[in-house]
Amino acid sequence: MLPSAAVFYFPWELNSDLQDGQSVRTCGRLVDYQPEESKATLSAQHASKEHHVIVHTMFVEPFNPIIGAQYIVLGETDGNEGIGTTVRARVLNCVDGVNVALLHKAVIEQRSFFRERERKQCDTAKSADAT
Amino acid sequence: MQTETMDAAEEPSSILWGLDPLFSAFVRLYVSDILHMTESTQVPGIYFYNQHPVYRVDVLGTVVYKREREDFFCYGVDDGTGVINCLCWKSELVKDDRPTGGEGGDAPGGFNVEAELSKLRRSQQERCRLDIGDLLRVRGTLKTSRQQREIMASNFYRVCDPLMELQISWMMDLPQLYRDCYDKKLQLDPHATSRDSPVGGASIVVRNFLEKNSVSRFRENDLKELLEPLVAPPSSQQLQQLLKQTLQHLQDEGVVYPKVKSPDQVYLVTSRDKELLVAILDVIREDSRREKYAEKGCHVLHILSAVRQRYSVNVSRAALQLLVQSLESSSDIISTSDSHYIAF
């Protein structure tokens, strides 16, 4: 039984709009790790604001936590905590040194391609209906 | 899972599949597109993306699911748009359970085959044995088994990408590939007349006739009887039109040319026009002696203008090309470059 695809979201996009249990992928800088509670905090800067993502790390432990390093997390959203959206990690990889700006650019490029394609398909569907 | 088959009427004919460059390539599609491709009704195992026949794909993604059996690994690969199963067969080196690291005594010269072999085994296992979270690159054929689409890997390996450089460049490349190749319809030469078209069919009939009867010259009316059965229902206007189009097509290909333009047009069959052949050869031989062309050779357009001056102003480039190629095959001339020729 394959898990569902984890779409990339920026940390500031992980809010209560997303459904619970949705597979997501995100990245951020590790600012805090509490091994007793299996909780890590990733942070990212956007629009002069610091956005945090709480990550439950019970499935990916033990891992070598490097505070300040960039991490990529893949897992399911879990918004029951009341402290904002958390992610239950299935995959937690350290990608320290990654070109964050380039990664963001690539994600945006991919999204704009999908939007463009969807729009084209809608247009051809509409013109097919019209004829 | 998606097992929709394409409407047989919409599918391009399987004869044409080989003309599509994507058919022979490992196509880099998003996993969601791979899962949604429709299967062919003509040949099961071939899938269509935007009318392109595809059966081999190339995927880069994170391993999110792993199953190991004696002979193969089954990895679930997630590229952000979908998850697909990849069947990765184990090579003999990977299956080997012998403990790696058996470094025996050094042979004189310092090369120990056992140690090297165990190192190879270790590196092979490192590359093929993946865990959840690792990055996997898979190239293989698509198949649908038990209503699930899978990739039978012909080549797979763990990708070392600590700075995400490869993943980022993959994300940037794919939209470009889609825009340039995958989302474009296959463009066959718009000027090509296919065998199925009436003009194409008629050209073949005329060529066979000219070949069989060793015709060297003919008039338009000589072909009327030949093309009559191809026009149904019989109509002199349609016949005339087909005749004109066929002759034009044959002229464009260089098979025939009108040596002297006259009301009662006589066409010469290029391959049987010995005088034209000799004229071309003379032009090339004479010019090859001149210092200007001795080394580089004569350009085909130069030969064409010379032949037009000496022999007939109606010789087309295509007709010239045909004869120049036959001269080259018979070693009377040599090509010094793509369009330059010199006497042998």
Automatic annotation (TrEMBL), chain A:
Question: Which InterPro entries does the record match to this protein?
Answer: NA-bd_OB-fold (IPR012340), Ten1_animal_plant (IPR029146)
Has UniProt tagged this entry with the keyword DNA-binding? yes
Keyword Iron attached: no
Q: Where in the cell is it found?
A: Chromosome, Telomere; Nucleus
Per the UniProt entry, the signal peptide is: none
Q: Which GO terms describe its biological process?
A: negative regulation of telomere maintenance via telomerase
GO MF annotation, one: telomerase inhibitor activity
Which keywords does this Swiss-Prot/TrEMBL entry list? Chromosome, DNA-binding, Nucleus, Telomere
> Which Gene3D superfamilies does UniProt cross-reference here?
Nucleic acid-binding proteins
Q: What is its main location?
A: nucleus
Entry's Gene Ontology cellular component terms? CST complex
Superkingdom: Eukaryota
Record-stated family: Belongs to the TEN1 family.
Protein's recorded name: CST complex subunit TEN1
